[in-house]
Amino acid sequence: MNIIVFEDAGTEKLSPISIGRPAYGISCGSYRLVDWLRAFEGNLVGLVRPFLKSVQEFDYPDFQNELDPELKWTLVVNARLAPSVANVRRLQSIMGQAESDQSIQVFHSEGATSAAVVPTGLFVSSEMSSWHKIIDELSLQPHSTVTENGFKLFKYPHDVIMENLECIGENLKHRVGLGRCEQLHKGVYVGQGVQINDPVIFDSTHGPIVIDDEVKIGPFTFLRGPVYIGPKTRISEHASIKDGVSISHTCKIGGEIEGCVLEAFTNKQHHGFLGHSYLGSWINLGAGTCNSDLKNTYGIVNMQYGAEKVTTGTQFIGCVIGDYSKTAINTCIFTGKTIGVASMVYGFATTNVPSFVNYARTFGEVGDLPAEVIITTQQRMFLRRNVVQRPCDIQLVHDMYKLTRHERPDDLSSDPLSL
User: Fold this and answer.
1) 3-state secondary structure of 252
2) How far apart are CA 267 and CA 282, in angstroms?
3) Which of 137-151, 179-193, 216-230 has the lowest mean pLDDT?
4) How far apart are CA 72 and CA 70, in angstroms?
5) pLDDT by residue (tens digit) across 323-349?
């Protein structure tokens, strides 16, 4: 079966999570949507925002540029679909019904098309540039069957944090069922080349602990499931990782972490608390950086996204930090705050932090951070991890700077860090 995974207008509301990556590449519960779609072994095509096309080409080389006309049916999937076992099982179910049911099946969630199964001919006869319009109008096609509230979609950044807590247990059970990890203790599973320096305490009472290939864990560490630690990640001594943490590959982790999602190549290596938060890629939290994930009033946390105030419906939400951002030592981030991409934060983050700024509001300074500074920093970070800085990585920084220009007030004084 052909598979089209598409970004819709709702992807913009996932900023800053979605600025530097396709929405199908957002981690949650140890998986990304693209991981599940690849497992379907279909002919996979991605419709992403124009500035991410080159990123998709290099980072997802298995994606195709066209549909296979010999495959009668095409599965259409919203890139904001949460990568949970429940969602994937529903996708598998509607794929299995395609041959027996000749109608177009369309599934809506909160006014958006979340998934559909349609005849491939509906797309191959049109240019790819018109496919978004076709997807938007699928429910108007003859013989279409529309189901409301079919799948769970990410609508706002904090949805990733909340969905992670909900789905990580079942997602990790699925990982264990693949048989790629060896059981070390009851509820504790390790991949190849894992190094564990005792003493380490494991508590799998409330969910499994999955430690992927080539992970190194320092002594005097506490792990309480459900927890996933991605390949080549290093856990510092005396770390405490617990209660729904999903860490991607090649991270350095220390201190206390609870209920969080961390993307690849991110460092929270030193002491300090991080709770109920999402961190993008290539982030570094300075020693002693802490965030609050509970208001002093014990009330429901509200998030401010641009001009829109959104209630989360929960007491526990920490922070959302975009790719390439950094914090200085002993930085404190207040409850429910977002930090944009490529910003550097000092002191207290009492408000949302725009992208591409030096934020030292505690000391009366907030300055613009040019893209060139981030590109130089990017090159240095990449070299430390033996990652090649590609033209598409450099261009992405420029694109992100332009796309986030509206976040920065016009009166910001230019005060870039010294190269």
Assistant:
1) strand
2) 7
3) 137-151
4) 6
5) 999 999 999 999 999 999 999 999 999
CATH number of this structure's domain 157-414 = 2.160.10.10
Collapsing DSSP states into helix, strand and coil, what is residue 386?
coil
- Hey, how many other C-beta atoms are within 10 angstroms of the C-beta on 197? 13
Q: Model-level pTM?
A: 0.95
Phi/psi of residue 170, nearest 5 degrees: -65, -40
The token pair that represents 325 in the structure block: 């951002």
Indicate the domain borders of the chain.
2-148, 157-414
Encoded tokens for 198: 């005792």
How far is it, in rounded angstroms, from Cα 310 to Cα 149? 20
Give the burial class of 398: count Cβ atoms within 10 A of its Cβ; 0-12 exposed, 13-18 middle, 19 or more buried.
middle
Q: How far apart are CA 394 and CA 378, in angstroms?
A: 8
CA torsion, points 12, 18, 24, 29, in degrees to nearest 10? Answer: -120
pLDDT recorded at residue 415: 43
8 Å CB contact between 342 and 284: no
Specify burial of residue 66 (Cβ count, 10 A radius: 0-12, 13-18, 19+). exposed
Q: Are 202 and 217 in contact (CB under 8 A)?
A: no
DSSP β-bridge partners for residue 211: 190, 229
Domain 2-148: CATH class, spelled out = alpha beta
